[in-house]
Each structure stands twice: as structure tokens, then as C-alpha cells.
Amino acid sequence: MWKIAAEKGGRLFDLFKEEGLVAMGLAGVGDISSVTSRKQVAAKVPEAFPKWPPGRVAAWAGMLFRFQHKIALEDNVITYGPGRRRYLIGTVASESRFDPST
């Protein structure tokens, strides 16, 4: 099972529930669907966030890479809404896709 945080404080919990989705991203990093390694993702993150320290870059690169390339169809996912102390549990029903409007 994969835990997908619904943003700090569960800010995206209602959106995840209403839209039936989980999402992850960093504005500016862009589409990483063609990137094949965590190292390649790590090279893209500082382009968007040049002031980030290496540890933060590595952490985000790992999360983005796993979200895009390791979570698979029919994997279970969970997210938490701390405001109401509720969990959402679901199953991945489609491949991930880059959608900056979401």
C-alpha cells in the first residue's frame, strides 16, 4: 500500500475524494514520464528550485520517481485528512499522467 499525503494538513483531501484521484507534483519540474531513473529526476528538481539543499532535492526526487514509475495499476493507496481524522483507501485504476491543471 502506498501512502499519498493530501498536502500539508490534508489540504487536498476533499479534492482527492471528490475527483477520485491522488496527485503529486512540484510546480516547475514538469512532466517526468519519460525520465527513467531517480538520478535524472534529481537533475530536474534543482532547475526549478535552485536554492534547495541537496537533501531536500534527493527526498523530492525519490518521491516523484516512485509516484511516476513504481506505483502500478491495482496497487492500493491511502491518504489521510487530519482535520476530520479520516482515511481514504483506494486502488490505482489508471496509469499516472502529467496534468498541470490538476
Largest sheet: 3 strands, mixed
Structural class, please?
Answer: alpha+beta
Task: Give a count of the beta strands, DSSP E runs of length 2 or more.
Answer: 3
> Order of helices and strands, N to C?
EHHHEE
Q: Return the domain count.
A: 1
The radius of gyration computed from the alpha-carbon positions, rounded to a whole number of angstroms, is 14 Å
Give the mean pLDDT. Answer: 92
Distance between the termini: 23 Å
Question: How would you characterize the overall build of this protein?
Answer:
The protein is of the alpha+beta class. It has one domain. 33% of the residues lie in helices and 14% in strands. It has a three-stranded mixed beta sheet with strand order 1-2-3, covered by helices on one side. A hairpin with a 4-residue loop joins strand 2 (76-81) and strand 3 (86-91). Helix 2 (38-48) packs across helix 3. The longest helix has 16 residues, at 54-69. The relative contact order is 0.24. The model has no long low-confidence stretch (mean pLDDT 92).
Features:
102 residues; 3 strands; three-stranded mixed sheet; alpha+beta
Give a short synopsis of this structure.
It is built from 3 helices and 3 strands. With 102 residues, the protein is α+β, with helices and mostly antiparallel strands.
